[in-house]
Amino acid sequence: MTAIPDSSPAIAPSVIAGLLLAARDHQLLLGLPSASAERIVEKTGARRSSAYEAKAKLLDALSSLVRPAGRPSAPASPPSPKVEALTRQVLRFLLDHPGCVHGGAEHRHYSDSFRRLVLDLREKHPDLGVEELAHAIEVPVDTLRDWLRTGAPPAPEALETDPTAWASSNLHVQTVLVEWDTWEGGFVAFCDHVAKHLRVPYRRSAITAILAAHGVRLRRRREGRSPDEKALRESFETFFPGAQWVADGTPVVVTFFGERFGFNFELTVDAHSGAFTGVSVRDEEDSAALIQAIEDGKDTTGAPPLAVLVDNRPSNLTPEVGEALASDQTLLIPATKGRPQNKGHVEGAFGLFRQAVPPLVLDGKNEREAARELLRLVITTWARTLNHRPRADHGGKSRVDLYSDKPTPEQIAQARTALAERLRRQEAARRTLQARQDPIVRQTIAAAFARLGIADPGGHILDAIAAYPLSPVVDGVAVFTGKRAAGSLPRDLEIPGRYLLGIVRNIAEQREGELISDAMLRARLEAQDALLAPLAQRRSLVEKEGTDAAQTVTRFVDSALDTDRHIDRLFWLSAAGDLIRGASASERPTLFRLGARRINTASRVPYRERATATRWLAHSALPVD
Considering the entire predicted model, what is its pTM? Predict the structure, then answer.
């Protein structure tokens, strides 16, 4: 029998499978039908791994099958050994300092340590051109030229930290702490680095908790809603129409003959019915405006209220207002601080007024008085119209209908007793608060009010500030005085005392946290905490090397400014404060000014952190309580 020659291709099945797999990729890109990878491997009888190896080799060989026209380009000259050495040196620095270079190609960020390295390389290799050096270290030429013009940033003093000081029972926790110790980038980038490159299975919240627990990065929490505000929501107590009015003012602008005139619109609203009882239009919100609005309300309703609720503006709590209400046995009740809901009745009325009234642009004679009269007529018409409008939430009754409901004598007596008891409790609480306060603190605040020209007729703001210790009060007065001298107080500041109260409150809260941190710091030092041992060693070395107190204070303050760790900064500032406090009385002011000047010229540190550092240095060096 004649032999039939074998017609099968003399090509290995893996090569055929690799060819089909390579063609399949291009077919998918062009939208052509193709077999699946599993079917190709099955039909050719090749092993999957061998087929993919053959595919890779075929794709590499495709570029050499067809040469482009023309002479082939000359091979690039290899970089010089010096450039290669520079590149390797920069690469080692990047590996030792993760995060010192971060960001995308268009907006890349470099740390101060990396800039110092580049400038040192430039000084060591002056024979290299700027372009050649920039190419070797992968820094844009323009950026490098800017660095050469600016010069090197100040080098921080290195702290010798033993990685074993971060000992932990959890290997992942130890990894996070050690990496953060050398990290120079942002926190979000650090979390991505830990998850992607170190394969630590922790999310951002867990990393935040680890760093906070070890005191190397403290997180700032937002203040939530106060328990008092939650408990008192929708709990405004009303009795009957005429029992309690709520009064407040709002500015209104009238344009007349192209000139703008500003007035104050004072309004009283009945808390039970929501009826608008009295109005007043004057040049500004003062005691006369409140009295005029109450008198207009009496003319409208025919009787005075049992009580009037006003905000804590000094003009509302003057003796003139008290005397005007005393003749009708009307109680004057200040609104609860921090509770804007107390005046919700009148604030809602102002909102309706601004929705209904068009821009007041007028022409006429007797410009200011005509504008005032027109505004009074508009407000009166608006209030009377709205008073007679039926209200769906009150069964179709208008404000006038609701206000016409006459209370019984028992209701009047009960309401009068309840309102008088409310006022008595407020006065008793105020007297108790004053009795508990330090008289030196009150004298300090009163003297500051007199010196700064801050009005506080009822003494409420003084009482509130006097609840804080002497140190934050002194610091707060100093901050307020400095801001006023610098012209940085808010331009629309109506009640300077409240602004001062806010400054004192913020300083007191911040100082409490700092004192807690300082106590923890000193407790760790006494316990020979491994975390703080390198700092204590460095402090001893600085004290031995210092030739005088001024040089040692300077080095302590510089060490505090060069670190981003909260606990390290407190350590160095406390060290400087201890040294200043131990100096003679004549040397302390000079040393403190030297440290404060050093702090305030560190532009790299944000302003708020510099202000905090200055206050802490003053507290440590020159305590007042």
Answer: 0.38
